[in-house]
Input
Amino acid sequence: GENVEQHPSTLSVQEGDSAVIKCTYSDSASNYFPWYKQELGKRPQLIIDIRSNVGEKKDQRIAVTLNKTAKHFSLHITETQPEDSAVYFCAATFNFGNEKLTFGTGTRLTIIP
Amino acid sequence: EAQVTQNPRYLITVTGKKLTVTCSQNMNHEYMSWYRQDPGLGLRQIYYSMNVEVTDKGDVPEGYKVSRKEKRNFPLILESPSPNQTSLYFCASRSTVGQPQHFGDGTRLSIL
Output
């Protein structure tokens, strides 16, 4: 089955700086990679996703890059703000014919004002 | 309002006493899943369903049962709960392949 590793487990950055979270996956058949943000005491919410036919996707201050050869993908947050403080999860799945989704173990991001 | 509703939100119970956590979505989604969230382990999928009467195991199905008799409902059943099932549980649904998952607010279960 799929295995997703996520690093780092905790990350502190100064407000305004950039944050990068990295994930690797094991199953080369995986073709859909979402990222979720979970604020304290709340549900996970999708912030960005990428499919295997795309190398990079950007949405305002958030971007995701995918390297299929190396089987890793990364979340980039630029110009960080205090409201970016949360736990971030990556996930991977083969997005056809099943609903199996494997998550990374999460990164607790703290933005220092 | 589009939502996934879980009940109860909190439950403290004892070992061996059967319990059911309900999950209902009002978006006519075909796909539904149950996850458990534990510190340091992230979200792990317990069971998922791709349509009515179609369910399959996720990564950690032991000790759990599910059913999908109607499209909107996907209950999680613990026949004989044990302390290692103490966790935060999330139900999620999505409409089809390639669409994002919508999560419920979570159910915090404590098994004593």
Summary: The first strand of chain B starts at residue 4 and ends at 7. The interface with chain A takes residues 31-33, 35, 40-45, 48-50, 56, 58-59, 90, 97-98, 100-101, 103-106 of chain B (CB under 8 Å). DSSP finds no helices and eleven strands in chain B. The radius of gyration of chain B is 13 Å.
